[in-house]
Structures are given as C-alpha cells and as structure tokens.
Design brief:
Layout: H1 3-20, H2 27-35, E1 56-59, E2 62-64, H3 67-77, E3 84-88, H4 94-102, E4 105-110, H5 113-125, E5 131-135, E6 148-153, H6 162-165, E7 168-179, E8 184-192, E9 195-204, H7 217-220
Helix pairs in contact: 2-4
Length: 225
C-alpha cells in the first residue's frame, strides 16, 4: 500500500474512532476497533471508504456491517477474554476479527462458500489463529461445539430460534436482529437462572438470515446454493 494511501486511511480510522466514542463505552471494544484493519476486509475498489461509518457491499448480496453496529453488538456481549463465541454469518470476516481480539475462541459459520473461503484467508493472513470458519448448510449455528458464552448473529431473523438458544451457555448472551426482511430491532437475549431475558438495543437493518432459524431461499426469491 502506498504511503499516502496508508496515511489517508489512518486519518479516516482516527475520525471513525472519535465518532464511535460517542456511543461505545467499553475501552476494550474501542481498542479492538482500532486494531483490526477494516480495509483488509473490503475489495480494493472500496478500500478508500473502509473507515466510513457505513456498511459496504462484499458481493453475493452481502455487506460488511456499519462499524457502529459491529461495536454495539460486540459491546453487548460483555466479553471478558476467556469465552467461546459463535458468530452466524461470517461475511467478510471483519466481525469475527473484532471478536477474536476480545475472547479466547471464535467459531463462525457462513453459507456462501466464496465468502467463507475469502474470510478464512484474510483472518489467517492477519494471524487470527483463534478463529474457526465453517461452511454451513441447513444447520443452525454450530451445535457440536456448544455451549457458547456468546452468540452473535449478523443476519436478520423473524424470531429468536429455540435451536439457537439451546446452544447458549448458562449466563450466556445472544445478540440478534429480529424483525421483517427490511427493518429489524437489535435484541440482547440473556440466559439467566430465571429464564431468558430480552433487552432491546435499537432499530437496525441487516440482510436476512437464510435457512434454519430464518427464511427459505424461495421465500426471499434467492437462488438455492
């Protein structure tokens, strides 16, 4: 990367971090956002926009999420550093990298093979050896490694699926966008001793979750993979 381009990206990152501080209080999350190079997770033609506070397309009808949403979802998990976290929807791999900075182990699943392959390659290049990327089909999450202290879903679901809650450890926290195809509300679900508790974190907009726990490809008009 040319020195001038690098300098521009660093200044853009600084502005983004200043903006995030208005809403994010967890210093560990802010440090992770500063450490992970978002520019590595977008295509070359979009690299100049990598540190703008907005989602960007990554192909296959998917996006890399807005940095503020990434930070909000991560902060809601209240990670201490020794947890195992499940992510549904690897996408670019950026959210997995943020989680990897903050916890012991990340298991992330993706249904679109080219995205899973590229994310795994970028994560490996950056040295994130505590992330496992799995290509998934009709299975919801990755039950064979459950339970998880944290679960983060980066695609919108019509409801909180019981099959996902079953993979949550006692006192575990699940962050998931729930609603219609086009607009949702971000929910924090905690597996407390007295049962599930739900906190609303605010409106959001994600691509839909396809398959178990979400919508079928036919319902969304998508071609079957």
């Amino acid at each position: 990367m040319a020195k001038a381009t690098y300098s521009l990206l660093e200044r853009a990152k600084g502005r983004l971090l200043t903006e995030l501080r208005h809403d994010i209080r967890d210093e560990r999350v802010l440090a992770a956002m500063a450490s992970v190079p978002r520019a590595k997770f977008v295509s070359d033609d979009l690299r100049a926009f990598a540190y703008e506070n907005r989602p960007l397309p990554i192909g296959h009808g998917q996006t890399i999420s807005q940095p503020l949403i990434v930070a909000m979802m991560t902060e809601a998990l209240e990670l201490k550093g020794d947890e195992k976290v499940l992510e549904l929807g690897t996408g670019s791999g950026y959210q997995a990298a943020i989680l990897a900075e903050l916890t012991a182990r990340v298991v992330t699943v993706e249904r679109i093979a080219p995205l899973a392959e590229r994310a795994a390659a970028v994560l490996a290049e950056l040295g994130y050896d505590n992330v496992q990327v799995h290509l998934t089909g009709d299975t919801l999450g990755w039950p064979e490694e459950a339970p998880y202290e944290g679960i983060l879903v980066t695609a919108a679901a019509p409801d909180v699926a019981p099959g996902l809650v079953e993979q949550l450890a006692p006192e575990g926290r699940l962050v998931i966008p729930v609603g219609a195809h086009d607009v949702q509300e971000l929910l924090l679900v905690t597996n407390s001793p007295d049962g599930l508790t739900t906190k609303r974190l605010g409106p959001c907009r994600f691509v839909p979750l396809v398959g178990a726990g979400g919508w079928s490809s036919a319902e969304l008009g998508f071609p079957e993979l």
